[in-house]
Amino acid sequence: MDKFEIVKFLKSAVVSHASDEHLKVGYPPYIRKNGFIKKISMDILTKEDMEFAIQEIAPVELKDKILTKTDFDFMYEIPGCSRFRINYNRQLGNPSLVIRNIPYNIPNLSELALPEILNSVINYQNGIVLVTGPTGSGKSTTLASLINQISLHTAKHIVTIEDPVEYVFNSTKSIISQRLVGVDTETFSEGIKYALRQDPDVIFIGEIRDRDTMEAALKAAETGHLVFSTLHTNDAVQTINRIVNMFEEANRFMIRKQLSETLRATIAQKLIYSNANDKRYPACEIMVVTPTIKDYIRKDNLDEIYALLASNNIDDMVSMNMSLLHLFNLGKISEEEALEASNDANELEKMFKGVYQGTVNYYE
Fold first, then answer.
1. Is 129 strand, coil or helix?
2. What average pLDDT score do residues 204-223 get?
3. Do 33 and 17 contact (CB within 8 A), yes or no?
């Protein structure tokens, strides 16, 4: 049996356009491609294979922790190939790795096939913009594209606070300071607090995971900075509810008021697999916070936001169904694939039949 060579395996996975790799004792390697898990025709991995692989790729300062730690994340790089975000974990006492491929190239919005109206997001001077969606929906790539566009076209100071650092940015017109939680700053909230003393124009927070980080992000947005971050929610209304519910009930009115003044836009993403084209395409709901939506947030009339998005009567707004219909009209996905991905299949069926009453021309 040949010895498992993890670097060779990762290079092969990148060439095959995999997005993730799964390695665990007692099983052959698996990859994820176009959202689907696929078993690779290789030998079953032994505990010795896994321990050798970890010693091969783990940073020096973490190698001694492998026998005592149960979970930790780190980055690895194969020069000229790719960067990798790696989660080390244990399963039934054995070491396991889950690996996400992070390409060097940061695509622009057109390469990602995202709506051109997202270019307007980089022109905001302050407030908070949230990109949401489930794990693996392309949130990090979309945010990296937006941050890179700001750096390419404006002269600003951009501070990123990440765990781990995924895309590495080049300072072009802007200066970009990338800070790693646990190494360069203690926590996300501490990183935001001290970023405010570092003359920032834009702050990118890798993920808002708790109330302290949310409070710090809102404060940064209130004090004249443009803040970008992510949440694991499926649409604009879920996003607002998730933020408000981070706080005690007695404080929720004030948080809704604060959020109505600072939130600029939400972008909810999902990746839709096309069986015919054997690739995935992004569909997204875009909500821009207008005076009407501010009022809905303040008064907790969030269901009205669904109706407003569905009507598509406001520039720079895109409902998820509108995005799915657009992908269908371009021949990217089938009607069945669009309906399966929709949160409101009945409405989308009406749109396909041409009996929908909303406007359908605001995607670009």
1. strand
2. 96
3. yes
* Residue at 11: amino acid letter: K
- The phi and psi torsions of 248 (rounded to 5 degrees) equal -65, 150
Q: What is the pLDDT of residues 110-122, one digit of tens each?
A: 888 888 788 888 8
pLDDT given at position 356:
53
The span from the first CA to the last CA of the chain, in angstroms, equals 55
Q: How far is CA 19 from CA 89, 104, 153, 228, 235, in A?
A: 19, 13, 29, 24, 24
Tell me the DSSP string of 242-300: HHHTTS-GGGHHHHHHHHHHHEEEEEEEEEEEETTTTEEEEEEEEEE--HHHHHHHHHT
Distances (CA, A) of 60 to 63, 185, 216: 5, 20, 33
Taking the model in full, what pTM does it have? 0.88
The first and second tokens of residue 155, run together, are 């002269």
Non-local CB neighbours of 217 within 8 Å, separated by 6+ positions: 128, 192, 203, 205, 208, 227, 229
Our CA angle for 154, 75, 28, nearest 5°, is 135
Cα–Cα dist 29/39, whole Å: 6
- Residue 44: DSSP 8-state: P
Instruction: Measure the CA–CA gap between 337 and 352, rounded to whole angstroms.
Output: 13
The confidence score (pLDDT) of residue 327 equals 92
Q: Which residues of 300-316 are buried (b: 16+ CB within 10 A; e: fewer)?
A: eebeebeebbbebeeee
- pLDDT tens, 263-315? 999 999 999 999 999 999 999 999 999 999 999 999 999 989 988 887 765 66
Single-letter residue type at 346: N
The residue assigned the tokens 């790539």 is: 141
Kindly report the backbone phi and psi dihedral angles of residue 60, in degrees, each rounded to the nearest multiple of 5, phi listed first.
-55, -40
Q: What are phi and psi of 154, to 5 degrees?
A: -135, 155
36-58 confidence digits (pLDDT tens):
999 999 999 999 999 999 999 98
